UniProtKB/TrEMBL annotation:
It comes from Meganyctiphanes norvegica. This is Amine oxidase domain-containing protein. Gene3D superfamilies: 3.90.660.10. Its main location: cytoplasm. Belongs to the flavin monoamine oxidase family. One of its GO terms (cellular component) is cytoplasm. Keywords: Cytoplasm, FAD, Flavoprotein, Oxidoreductase. Residues 3-128 form the Amine oxidase domain. One of its GO terms (molecular function) is polyamine oxidase activity. Its cofactor is FAD. It is found in: Cytoplasm.
Length: 146
């Protein structure tokens, strides 16, 4: 069995650029894939939110082949792409450069070579031939009929 791949990215600032009155929680649904080609990997970011423990930090999850691409990139390039991404999805131009950056590299780690879980993107579902989730819907009944 092959494990999936997803990685986390963390950016932090001295104070939240989105305002400190509420957490950042961006749900991203791409309807136009019109980023520069070298930034295609950011279209596989499935979650972007501030962390409860550090309200000035943003956590993102990137999945699949895009996650592998991100693992190979220089940190400065990733940060540039993420700032561009955040400006696009938040519709704000005043996002400063972060003073902290960290990424996981689960596939490159010789002790893991993958991650415990992954997400299926729209592209991933099409590639794997998943056209319906009906096979996931049936109820499972135990030996007592429950």
């Amino acid at each position: 069995v092959e494990s999936g791949i997803s990685n986390k990215l963390f950016l932090a600032w001295n104070s939240p650029w989105w305002g400190s009155d509420k957490p950042l929680d961006l749900h991203i649904y791409w309807k136009n894939f019109n980023l520069p080609k070298e930034m295609d990997w950011v279209m596989s970011i499935v979650r972007c939110s501030s962390t409860p423990q550090r309200p000035n930090m943003v956590e993102m999850i990137v999945t699949g082949d895009a996650s592998l691409t991100m693992e190979e990139m220089a940190p400065e390039k990733i940060i540039g792409h993420l700032i561009y991404f955040l400006k696009r999805v938040s519709k704000r131009e005043d996002i400063p450069l972060p003073n902290f950056f960290h990424r996981s590299k689960w596939n490159s780690n010789p002790w893991t070579r993958g991650s415990y879980g992954s997400y299926l993107t729209t592209e991933g579902e099409t590639e794997r031939g998943i056209r319906s989730r009906r096979s996931l819907a049936p109820k499972i009944i135990d030996s007592r009929g429950r």
